[in-house]
């Protein structure tokens, strides 16, 4: 079979060369690319002859898939699949498998790190002292004792809960179904409305689907405390970002942190979340650590080996 990895995946070329020898020993051809190209023309050029393809979070529409007549298996180096035209894949017999679990630690750590920054103003104070300033009358807030509402208790949400409990936070949760392992940690499930009303911090860990698109909008933001913080390391469209921006500008919530947006960064300089210093923003990096990328490669190519067997 012809196996094509259309991008670098953040792993060294030496690893790719090992994989090339591995698949050659099994009688398969393996081609890899060390750059990332997202335009449809390049994707078609790279994938046209693939029986098996590896891709991360590059958008893969039917316009590209339809030009890959041999394609039978997609090993997706990402947790979410909302960037893949799954309806086309199902209709044309293309099996799709994600890399669940590779970034659980990475995302949960960044989510808690964002909470700490919002509470302690680490980035802001760093800039202040570099400009010759001092503490002045600044007072931060502690994570210990805060009520944190975790929206979505899959693997990442649960890992975040464990970190929060270690910090001494009180955790409540909402999920479409309740999980016994989360309850065993002493976490109480409540309605989304109650979670928003009670929480000092709301952190989002749900996948993007029809049920979660726009889950946090104007009505939901109005339920939150004016001192509350919102953290989104899930998917941008889980929030009505315009509503979040307006709530921040109007001071109806105290702050927010976003690693994800309506589309992949770079963002336009007039983006609403950039118009206020109440929002901490990072360029979709929650999943991106040396450790997670190494684990991701193991998962992705392990899936291919299983498929070949």
Helix percent reads: 25-40%
Q: What's the shape?
A: elongated
End-to-end Cα distance, whole Å, is: 12 Å
User: Which strand order do you get reading across the main beta sheet?
Assistant: 8-7-6-9-10-11-12
Q: What name is given to the CATH topology of the largest domain?
A: Rossmann fold
CATH class of the largest domain: Alpha Beta
Q: β content, as a range?
A: 5-15%
Number of distinct helices: 12
Number of strands: 12
* Overall pLDDT score: 96
Whole-number radius of gyration? 21 Å
**Number of folding domains?**
2
- What is the H-and-E element order? EHEHEHEHEHHEHEHEHEHEHEEH
Question: The biggest beta sheet, please?
Answer: 7 strands, parallel
The CATH architecture of the largest domain is 3-Layer(aba) Sandwich
Low-confidence stretches: none
Strand-pairing-aware structural class = alpha/beta
Can you tell me the CATH superfamily of the largest domain?
A: NAD(P)-binding Rossmann-like Domain
């Amino acid at each position: 079979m012809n196996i094509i990895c259309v991008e670098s995946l953040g792993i060294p070329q030496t690893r790719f060369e090992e994989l090339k020898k591995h698949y050659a020993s099994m009688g398969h051809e393996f081609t890899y690319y060390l750059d990332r190209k997202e335009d449809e023309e390049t994707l078609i050029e790279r994938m046209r002859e693939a029986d098996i393809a590896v891709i991360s979070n590059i958008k893969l529409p039917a316009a590209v898939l339809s030009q890959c007549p041999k394609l039978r298996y997609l090993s997706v180096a990402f947790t979410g699949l909302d960037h893949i035209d799954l309806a086309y894949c199902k209709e044309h017999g293309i099996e799709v498998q994600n890399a669940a679990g590779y970034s659980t630690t990475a995302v949960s750590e960044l989510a808690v790190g964002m909470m700490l920054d919002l509470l302690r103003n680490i980035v802001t104070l760093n800039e202040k002292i570099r400009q010759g300033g001092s503490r002045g009358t600044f007072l931060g807030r502690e994570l210990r004792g805060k009520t944190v509402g975790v929206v979505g208790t899959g693997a990442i949400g649960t890992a975040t809960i464990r970190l929060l409990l270690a910090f001494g936070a009180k955790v409540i949760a909402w999920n479409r179904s309740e999980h016994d392992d989360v309850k065993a940690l002493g976490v109480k499930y409540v309605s989304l409305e109650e979670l928003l009303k009670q929480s000092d911090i709301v952190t989002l860990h749900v996948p993007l689907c029809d049920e979660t698109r726009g889950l946090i909008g104007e009505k939901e933001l109005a339920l939150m405390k004016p001192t509350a913080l919102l953290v989104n390391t899930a998917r941008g469209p889980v929030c009505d970002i315009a509503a979040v921006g307006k709530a921040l500008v109007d001071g109806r919530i105290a702050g927010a942190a976003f690693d994800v947006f309506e589309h992949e960064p770079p963002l336009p300089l007039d983006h609403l979340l950039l118009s206020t210093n109440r929002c901490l923003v990072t360029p979709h990096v929650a999943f991106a650590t040396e450790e997670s990328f190494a684990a991701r490669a193991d998962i992705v190519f392990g899936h291919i080996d299983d498929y070949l067997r």
